Amino acid sequence: MNELNHTLNSIIQYRKRLDAIATDLEKKVFEDGKLLRDVEDQIKQMDIIEKELDIKEAMLLALNGRETLLGNKIEHDLNFYNDPSVLDSWNISFFAQRNGTFNIKTVIHPFDIVPLNQGQCFSPSSGVFTVPFHGIYHFYFAALKMKKQESGTGRVTIQLVKNRKIVPTLRKVLAEVHLDSAEGLSTRSEDCYKVLFYQMEHPLIDVALLYR
């Protein structure tokens, strides 16, 4: 009987030890799982930081590229404005005006008043300005129609046209304005049209007044 009780007590103690070991294992597994999740969260956070760093690096490269382009542009502009031919082109200017009717369709009308033609690059008879130097040119033009058309729309179109050749096969309209006095005694265009034109070659600029 005593041996049986001793064996039973040994089994009970062994069982308690096994339960304690199992509890310790479960606790260890839980702690290891928590540690693993923490590591995974840190890895995800590092991935996010890495992506943010990649984005910032790309932005920095883009800014450096823009800085380089801006520096090149500044250098180009300084060289451009120090170019003697550009300085000479600053002395080129003209002002032309025409007063009268436009009763011929799709024909360039000559200008009858030319108070300014510095450099003699503008032809009043043809309305063509020949660019003498590469550079930046500013063109301003305006139009005013005073009387109502008796019949039809009375539409007048004013164009600033660029020609690459004397024969206008490659024409490009730089600016255009329309006047239509069919609905009133007088119709006025916008007060002034401004065109900024930059050209390295010597093209032709038609200041054309067309009746359509």
From TrEMBL:
Domain C1q: 94-167
One cellular-component annotation, GO: extracellular space
Entries under InterPro entries matching the protein: C1q_dom (IPR001073), Cerebellin_Synaptic_Org (IPR050822), Tumour_necrosis_fac-like_dom (IPR008983)
Pfam families xrefs: C1q (PF00386)
Repeat recorded as keyword: no
TM spans (from-to): none
Signal peptide: none
Compartments reported by the entry: Secreted
Major location category of this protein: secreted
Superkingdom of the organism of origin: Eukaryota
Protein name, entry field: C1q domain-containing protein
